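README: folding subset

This subset contains proteins for which both the sequence and a predicted structure token string are available. Records are stored as plain text. Below is the entry for SpaH/EbpB family LPXTG-anchored major pilin (528 residues), shown exactly as it appears on disk.
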Amino acid sequence: MKKLKKLFAVMLSLIMVLAMGITSFAADSGTDKIFGTIDDTATITVNGIDNETGIQVNAYKVVEARYDGAGATFSGYNSLYPAVITQEMVKADLSTLTSDQLTSLANAVMADDTKTAIPLTNTTDTTTWTATVGAGTYLVLVSDTEAHSYNPMVVSAYYVNENGNTNISEGALTLTTTAANAKKSNAPTINKKITNSNGNDYGNSVEVNDIVNYEVTVTPIPSYTGSHPVFNVEDTLSNGLDFVTDENGNVVDPVVKVGTTTLTKDTDYTVSVDGRKMTINFVVGKAYKLNAYASQTLTIRYSAKVNKDAVLWDNVNTNTAKLNYTNDSKVDGNNTSAEKTTYTYTFDIGGEATGTNGIITKTGKDKNSEKPLDGAVFGLYKAGEGVTAETVATAADNAAYKTATSDTKGQIHFSQLKKGTYYLKELSAPDGYSVNTHVYTVTIDTTHKNDGTLDRWSVTIDGTTSTFALNNEGTWESVKNPTYIVNTTLSSLPSTGGIGTTIFTIVGCGIMIAAAGLFFASRRKENR
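--- output ---
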């Protein structure tokens, strides 16, 4: 009996030891990966990137896996760039990030001096790139390409359980990965717009001495690694525009930025001006200066001033920005260009050459007399703060924005006007005529096409509108509804006072004469 008890005790002890061994074996996540360990790896893949000479494809970790127990147990994910990817956004797969979020993430990564690049290598064909990584999410950036760029991409290596579920509590875990498809931009493009425009981004209206502000953007910035880089922007003004100058007469330098970073003249670029052409060159000496900003957007801001040579609306004042670049800096002369033009207009009233005659006609009697009146002087006042039809009625003549004198056809010509509201008042009339005291409200309105060119414009005078519209043949059609400003001759002025006043005047004079006669008669009688 004692032997049986001893045997039973030995067997029980053996069972306990074996049970403990089994438990210890099951908890060895480094062997079975029951919970996931810090040593787990997987292969991430990016498709669609050409295998150019010198090209760099790098991955940067933006979300890391978190482990407990000295790396033995996976417990979740942490964002390494919480300003862009908040902890609330963190999940196993971040392939749904928007293009704006990807751009912000790329900017944050490139500004991080502590980042570590993981190179991707070209493997099975010329467009597939891979790297072996640990669990987490990675931003993939492509650099050192020629005259084109690739969009930022994210790929992930993340844990799933045996059912493919990422909502993990415990159980056997494996790493799975996402693949990214690169989007390639074949060439940089240029865009130019007018900021603070009274038309649209590409067209506006002006008057002499107005300042027109421009913004040129080039995207994406290419990367060049060869010895023949070409990358510059030329801006050319028409005769009606001049570059803004400082008090010494020097052209004011443009402001050049990439994102929020302001580039430095003579270090990152040079500026040269030849007449009405400004060139901003990003090859200083023989060195291309924008490789550090590849795939980002270049912004150039500068201004022009309208001069007296600005042409009227049936022509146009243009400003053209031209991008010159090379398709391959390893080859001399493989260059091309792209350009964008803005359109600036100025308007007139009463012009024979532009067909605006007949909108306002000065007459000497009435609009049906067909007698135009020349020599009447008019003032045009710009509406604005404190300037209304009521204030213009009593305003001084020298406060007028422009003055004009009616010609032999009764036309009043005001030139180089922009979109807006004005007030028209007669300042003086020819001999023999009275001044018309009415103040007329004049409104110029414009409509531009999407490319900035003028589609139609109108002049409204006291509610009467004349329009000028571009037809399908590219010629201007006008619908004119004239306004007649009538002056009255002084000889036809109505008498003031009626017949009753005249009678009273005569009677009063008679009484005074009779009183005087009686006075002198009485004096003679007394003298006798």
